[in-house]
Specification:
It contains 14 helices and 19 strands. It is α/β, with parallel strands linked by helices and 449 residues long. Helix 1 packs parallel to helix 2, helix 5 packs across helix 6 and helix 13 packs antiparallel against helix 14.
């Protein structure tokens, strides 16, 4: 694969108004993607664009719109809408391409551009590389003639459409009547749709993080700061708490006591419930190398498998499509329910947890521990030169560590995709052994780099 200049593991991302998150780059994305998706037939071509609540969205969106329109594509803008909503609308409105302007769980200082194909899935690496190669061409190449420019319209019912799709994913015959639900929308893209969906399904809703001002997205709120959710749950005596991130594609749950429930527990709960109801496809769950060993064991006891991929929800999705699985995700709360969505969806994942809660009649704290997590330790080691993982001393330390963990745990050593860091993670039943193994490998990496 070629060297990436703009696209990372999750679209293009960076500090707002500095390269690559500038209006010029956004314009080039619109022009390049527009040219690529304008095939030779005569029909009108369409792009749909959603965003979260960042101030810089007002700068990036018009630049994208100008690029697409000048390539001859019609543009529909949605305003604030969750990432999974944009993916859905791309497919349901028969658009050629969908764009989400968001930097997900990052602070307002950053922004990003994510692209979806006509099927609602994130674009493949090869298509992204094609767009990259076209982005550095002259800006005035292959522009549409004056009578073939794209038309641009704001669509106001996209949020209502998404709410209806989300409600339809909740099992028929169940209601949230009588449930007190706290929800933290991170002052982000889900700030209207998520509380409305829960309310329309019958719940009493206590919403925080629903007053975006362009600068407060993910600030001391949302799935990356679950303390705000825990406090809201306790303050309102809620049965359950739900926290989304800035673009609402991930979720963290907390029980009525404010105890946090991560993505591994949520996936296990939904998978076991779906297996019981005959809805689970693929005989197991797809997760990443970071998911806890306790989860793998709990699924195995139920006769289900856990398939692991590298870190990144796009790799989880690829494996799900290849193997025909309908549940996958990450410990961080990116959960993909393939029956309902083509990407992680925080609200729909929360609705599946609520279905289990309603049907069981039990307290959330009873359901929260689907398995006992084994001790897991992750350390990041910064390096300045070379490739530490090719060092003989590091290789020997890793081999020795793996031998010590055989049958009792596992070791994972990988470079970060975005920084000069080596991530060293071990887990196993013996916490002291895990700590000692990680310390040895970290020492070897430090000596090498």
């Amino acid at each position: 694969m070629g060297e990436r200049r703009y696209f990372g593991t999750d679209g293009i991302r960076g500090r707002a108004n500095t390269h690559p998150m500038t209006p010029e780059v956004a314009l080039r994305v619109g022009l390049a993607a527009g040219r690529l998706f304008m095939s030779s037939d005569d029909r009108r071509h369409l792009v749909v664009i959603g965003k979260d609540t960042r101030l810089s969205g007002y700068m990036i969106e018009p630049a994208l719109v100008a690029g697409f329109a000048s390539a001859g594509m019609d543009v529909l803008t949605f305003g604030p809408l969750p990432t999974p909503g944009v993916a859905m609308m791309t497919r349901s409105m028969r658009a050629d391409i969908g764009v989400m302007i968001s930097a997900s769980h990052n602070a307002y200082l950053d922004n990003g551009i994510k692209l979806f194909g006509p099927d609602g899935y994130k674009l493949s690496d090869s298509v992204e590389l094609k767009i990259e190669s076209m982005m550095d061409q002259a800006l005035d190449e292959a522009l549409a003639p004056p009578d073939k420019l794209g038309r641009v319209k704001r669509i106001d019912d996209s949020q209502a459409r998404y709410i209806e799709i989300a409600k339809a994913s909740f099992p028929k015959g169940l209601s949230l009547q009588g449930l007190r639900i706290a929800i933290d929308c991170a002052n982000g893209a889900g700030y209207k749709v998520a509380p409305t969906t829960l309310y329309e399904l019958g719940a009493e809703v206590f919403a925080v993080g629903v007053e975006p001002d362009g600068l407060n997205i993910n600030k001391d709120c949302g799935s990356t700061y679950p303390q705000a959710l825990a406090e809201t749950v306790k303050r309102h005596n809620a049965h359950i708490g739900i926290a989304l991130d800035g673009d609402a594609d991930r979720v963290i749950i907390c029980d009525e006591n404010g105890q946090i429930i991560d993505g591994d527990q949520i996936m296990t709960m939904v998978a076991l419930d779906w297996a019981r109801r005959g809805l689970l496809v693929g005989g197991g769950v797809v997760a990443t190398v970071m998911s806890n060993l306790g989860m793998e064991r709990a699924l195995n006891v139920a006769g289900l498998t856990l398939e692991r991929t590298r870190v990144g929800d796009r790799y989880v999705m690829e494996r799900m499509r290849e193997g025909g699985f309908n549940i996958g995700g990450e410990q961080s709360g990116h959960i993909i329910l393939h029956d309902h969505a083509t990407t992680g969806d925080g609200l729909m994942s929360a609705l599946q947890v609520l279905a289990v809660l309603v049907e069981s009649g039990r307290a959330m704290s009873d359901l929260a521990r689907q398995f006992e997590p084994v001790p897991q330790l992750l350390e990041n080691v910064r390096f300045t030169t070379g490739k530490p993982l090719q060092d003989e001393g590091v290789k020997a330390a890793i081999a020795y560590a793996e031998a010590r963990l055989v049958g009792a745990g596992r070791l994972l050593v990988r470079p970060s995709g975005t920084e000069k860091l080596i991530r060293v993670m071990a887990e196993g039943d013996d916490a002291a052994l895990v700590k000692s193994v990680v310390a040895d490998v970290v020492a070897a990496v430090k000596a090498a780099g």
